[in-house]
Each structure stands twice: as structure tokens, then as C-alpha cells.
């Protein structure tokens, strides 16, 4: 199911999967693709049937970053970010469902930012990450400043940003960015299983976890404790919590509905 020009969207049993569909330019981001990614994220947020969003690329790359070959339409790059990239990243981070980044190949520049905006990353053998901005005289954008600091700390973030060093899938896993490195032959099967695993999890609890983790990075402990208490109050009234307790007591697998 897809009515988009630059990506393909499938919806199967609560798993929404985006395939970036510009393989001829290694899935480089143009205004159209950026808008479509944002649109899918917003539709997934509004949909009760969506349980998890998976983002991957067609062809050899995940995403090679901004489509520089098409030219820079506005010399005010800040305005470009505010009108295109930033709303896309905020839509993904604000999506109250888990976003899985399935990094099937190079994730470079803003493509690296797109990958890091996801909540759970897996990478195919041979994939790599690279913050290439400095090679063209630019600073980080599309959220990479925050994502690298949150995940790696100042010195490693500065190293990657200032050197444009490529990080292999295996190195990214060792750094804690990537949860799994998957072989080519197991890629499709594992992605399907992973999407189904997340779709079976309690969506409300995952949404609260996602929101708390994003806020906690900037808060003092007392504020975090109160935030956790309020989030747990909401989770405690959920049908998923009732089902979780019942399944535990009845010694059976839970059936979560995200409510």
C-alpha cells in the first residue's frame, strides 16, 4: 500500500514499513521525500492500527543525505532546515510508537541524522554511518548534534563530527548505537520478525518510555522522578497493564493491544 512518489509504504499487522525509493541517488533526501517521511509519521501517530514504524532504504544505501546534485534552492540553509528537515525529525521523535531504523547500507550526512532519529537501530553487514557535514564546510544538522551527544558523549561526538569518519555497522554496535548487525541472507526475515516483536509489545508503555527518555536527558533527578510517576500513573490505568498482570498470573503470553 503506497500512494507516495519517493517512498513505498506497506502496512501489515500493525507494522508500517517505509522503503526510501530513490536508489538511483542512494536515497538522497529531496524536499519531496522529506515531506513524505513526515507525512507517514504523522499518519502513523493518528492511526490506531499502527504499532511500529520501520524505515529502510531500497538498493545499496539507507540514505546518502541531502541531494546536493539537485542544487541548493535557498542560500539560507537555516530556513531550509526549519521548513523541511526539522519538521520531519520532530515528527519521528514525536511519534508515540517505536521507530526502527533498518540501516541496509550507508547512512551519511542527513541520512545519518535520519537513522539516529529512530529509536531502535539494526544494521546490515557492510552498512556504515558517517557525519559528512564537515567535508563541505557545514556543521551537524537534522538532529545529529543532540543524537550524538545523547548516545556517545562530547568527545566521541566531536570526533565523528569533526573528522567525517566512517563507522562500520560492527563499530556502531560496539558504541551502543546499533542493537543488532544482521547478515544479508537473514536481513528480510529478521526485519519481519523484529517488526512483529515490537507490534506485540505494549504501545502505550513504549510511547511513555520514549517520551521520558527524551526528556530525562535535560532534567534534574527530582523532575525525572515526578515525570516517571505521572507516566506510570497513565500506564497503570491501561488495558495493557491489566493484560500484563493477568497473563503473568495465568502463566501465558500477554496479548497487548496498545490501549
UniProtKB/TrEMBL annotation:
Cited InterPro entries: ClpP/crotonase-like_dom_sf, Enoyl-CoA_hyd/isom_CS, Enoyl-CoA_hydra/iso, Enoyl-CoA_hydra_C
PANTHER family, A to Z: 1,2-EPOXYPHENYLACETYL-COA ISOMERASE, ENOYL-COA HYDRATASE-RELATED
Enzyme class: isomerase
GO molecular function: isomerase activity; lyase activity
Coiled coil: none
Assigned protein family: Belongs to the enoyl-CoA hydratase/isomerase family.
Protein name per UniProt: 2-(1,2-epoxy-1,2-dihydrophenyl)acetyl-CoA isomerase
Alphabetized Gene3D superfamilies for the sequence: 2-enoyl-CoA Hydratase, Chain A, domain 1, Lyase 2-enoyl-coa Hydratase, Chain A, domain 2
Keyword match Ribosomal protein: no
Annotated keywords: Isomerase, Lyase
Highest taxon of source: Bacteria
UniProt record, GO biological process: fatty acid beta-oxidation
Tagged with keyword Lyase: yes
EC numbers on record: 5.3.3.18
